Amino acid sequence: MANRTAIGVDLGTTYSCVAAFQNGKVEIIANEHGNRRTPSYIAFNKSSRLIGDEAKSQVALNPNNTIFNVKRLVDRKFDDPTVQNDMKHWPFKVTSD
């Protein structure tokens, strides 16, 4: 049987992780900080884009440009009642376009 490799991504509401299946074993891949899960946050500032721990640390300083809970938007339309309710609690703006 051929040696098969697969990569899996778990996009979680609060944390995400990546795993590799190789040689009959699953290994969760550590991020640049050695953690096996990464906060599901993205932040934008004037000069860069931050992800994970760095982005999460920006939420208090840069709330309008720090995105989180993205999984709650997956496969939902803008006018979905759940999306409309969630938007009331997020500091960032969600648009329909």
TrEMBL record:
GO terms for molecular function: ATP binding; ATP-dependent protein folding chaperone. Gene3D superfamilies: 3.30.420.40. PROSITE patterns: HSP70_1. Keywords: ATP-binding, Nucleotide-binding. It comes from the Eukaryota. Belongs to the heat shock protein 70 family. This is Heat shock protein 70. It comes from Rotaria sordida.
